[in-house]
Amino acid sequence: DFNTRLNKHYDRLDELKIDYYKKGGFTIAKWTDADVSQEFKDLTFDVTKKVYTTGRVQAGFLFTSGKNFLEIDGVQLLEDGKVIASDNHHAIADNFRGTNKIKPYFYNFEVKTYNPKAKYTVKAKVRSNGGTDSKGNFTFNLSPYKAFSAVEPR
After folding, report:
1. CA distances to 12, 43, 58 from 95, in Å
2. Cα–Cα distance between 59 and 121 in angstroms, integer?
3. In whole angstroms, how far apart are CA 13 and each of 4, 23, 27, 35?
4. Which has the closest alpha carbon to 116: 54, 59, 46?
5. How far from 78 is each of 30, 57, 58, 72, CA to CA, in Å?
6. Cα–Cα distance, 112 to 140 (Å, whole number)
7. Strand partners, 44
8. CA–CA distance, 73 with 56 (Å, rounded to integer)
9. How many CB atoms lie within 10 A of CB 110?
């Protein structure tokens, strides 16, 4: 089995600072009906384990089920509660996955300085559109500025 053979090579890939696919991919959290309302409110995700060096970040809101899409009115990246980056565009996390238009439900940031002792969170202003039947995945991916310098811890 390929996965069994691959398991013994992860330590070497980490030592060489080669980033590789991790089970679960970039999905680090989910939102459910209980997390949203028809009025805008903050939705916060702890991303501390995913911030491990300086680099570019892409966070995404992927609608998975329900009758009501998620409306997003800006997203911030915080370090110990202080905003270090923001992307304030307005978007709808819907079920469109085609390739003929941009994906506005992705938000981009930069981690210009990294503090290994800090707590990192993403805070989004969201509401469900037309009801609260909304579920989805929150994704977070950091790409280090300098290739082969750091990898996400296991």
Report:
1. 39, 20, 19
2. 11
3. 15, 15, 22, 37
4. 54
5. 19, 13, 14, 17
6. 16
7. 123
8. 21
9. 14
pLDDT value of residue 101: 65
Please, what's the b/e burial string for 47-62 (b: 16 or more CB within 10 A of its CB; e: otherwise)? beebbbbbbebbbbbb
Could you write out the three-class secondary structure of the chain? CHHHHHHCCHHHHHHCCCCCCCCCCCEEEEECHHHCCCCCEEEEEECHHHCCCCEEEEEEEEEEEECCCEEEEEEEEEECCEEEEEEEEEEEECCCCCCCCCCCCEEEEEECCCCCCCCEEEEEEEEECCCCCEEEEEEEEEEECCCCCCCCCC
Q: Which amino acid is at 8?
A: K
Task: Specify the pairing of strand 55-66 against strand 134-144.
Answer: antiparallel
From first to last of its 154 residues, the chain has per-residue pLDDT tens of: 887 888 888 888 877 777 676 666 689 999 999 999 999 999 999 999 999 999 999 999 999 999 999 999 999 999 999 999 999 999 999 887 666 666 788 999 999 999 999 999 999 999 999 999 999 999 999 988 877 677 777 7
